[in-house]
Amino acid sequence: MREATEGAYVAAAAVAPVIASLRANVAALTGVDPQGVAFVESAGSALNAVLQVWPLTDGDAVAVAPSEWGPNLHAFRVSGLDTTWLEVDAAGLIDLAALDRRLRTAPPAFVHVTQQASHRALRQPVAEMATMCTAAGVPLWVDAAQAAGHCAIEVGADVVYATSRKWLAGPRGVGLLAVKKAWRDVLRVDPSPMATADDPLLSSVESHEAHIAGRVGLATAVDEFIAIGPEAVSERLDAVGRMTRAHLSELPHWTVVDPIASPGAITAIAPAKGQDVFEVRERLLRSHSIVTTACQVARAPLDMPVPWLRISPHVDATPEQIVTLCDALATL
After folding, report:
1. Helices vs. strands in the chain: H and E counts, helices first
2. Which tens digit of pLDDT belongs to each residue from 66-104?
3. Domain ranges of the chain
4. Which of 30, 101, 185, 194 is most buried, by CB atoms within 10 Å?
5. Using 50, 70 and 90 to split pLDDT, how confident is the model at 193?
């Protein structure tokens, strides 16, 4: 409304302190200084932005886990990078001993890891990975799209990027990017002709037509998240996940993909009787007003044998709601 009635630039100037506070809060949550934070349109936009400014050449190797988010793999291919695979254990967790050997014998241009998988209850040991990568001088990039607001993302990574609209419960159309100071001098940044001397280096990747209202919305969401307490939110989401998986494990004709004790609130169930998860998702929404996600194999093409149904309740989920979900699934 203020953009319409007072003018976009006037409105943006009026909320500059709000955006500055958001930048400082995101810096604290990601473990960088405020000069290393940029706001873009989405997590995908953040990845594309850092791929454009990082000193990479065609054929450089990026090491990822088989559970990597499918669109990230596509972004790496489009950028001319060679994807190499990190060893994982039976649960899909990155083998840290094998990573150490890789870093010493055949280091990639960077290691990329999706901290919290989108398609199931899989959370990678990013803090341990960051320590090892730093010692080897290999940058670690962390896709925190499903981790921000879900678990700690201040893990020592060199690049962290995420979205506003998932566990932080902010608006669509805003993403965040954080880059450690140690790597910013090597970025191939071309400052915008509209930039001022006071603008952060990474502001060059931000859109001149930025979604300022969305950033204000994200600032509100982050303020609320910090006020509640990130650790308290994470602990509650872990409990919600255990509750959800425990109830769903008793459901006939579906298989819970990960152990009940897995971290986080994301739960994936696999159809045991050939159910069409896309149809199930639509019927749950249409007939029961229950929102779930039908996960295409393309989300993690090397980790998903078939499409799965994802359930992602937030901190306010109750046992009664999960029972309602189970009852609804039992009829489909």
Report:
1. 12, 11
2. 999 999 999 999 999 999 999 999 999 999 999 999 999
3. 2-228, 230-330
4. 30
5. low
Residue 124: which of 87, 178, 175, 164 has the closest Cα? Answer: 87
Q: Closest Cα to residue 36, out of 51, 50, 15, 57?
A: 50
How confident is the model over 9-68, as pLDDT tens digits?
Answer: 999 999 999 999 999 999 999 999 999 999 999 999 999 999 999 999 999 999 999 999
Q: Provide the 3-class DSSP secondary structure of residue 212.
A: helix
Tell me the CB-side half-sphere exposure of residue 134, using CA atoms within 13 A: 13
Altogether, the residues listed in the chain come to a count of 332
- The pLDDT confidence band at residue 297, using thresholds 50, 70 and 90, is very high
**Alpha-carbon span 268 to 308, nearest angstrom:** 6
CATH architecture, domain defined by 2-228: 3-Layer(aba) Sandwich (3.40)
- Residue 141, exposed/middle/buried by CB under 10 A (0-12, 13-18, 19+)? buried
Nearest to 130 by CA among 162, 149, 152: 152
Alpha helices in the chain (DSSP H): 2-6, 8-14, 16-30, 43-53, 70-78, 96-105, 126-136, 181-184, 212-228, 230-248, 277-288, 319-330
Is domain 230-330 given the CATH code 3.30.1330.60 in the classification?
Answer: no
Claim: this prediction has a pTM higher than 0.85? yes
Question: Do 23 and 35 contact (CB within 8 A), yes or no?
Answer: no
CA end-to-end distance (rounded Å), the chain? 45
Angle between helices 43-53 and 70-78 (to 10 degrees): 30
Helix, strand, coil % over all residues of the chain, rounded to 5:
45, 15, 40
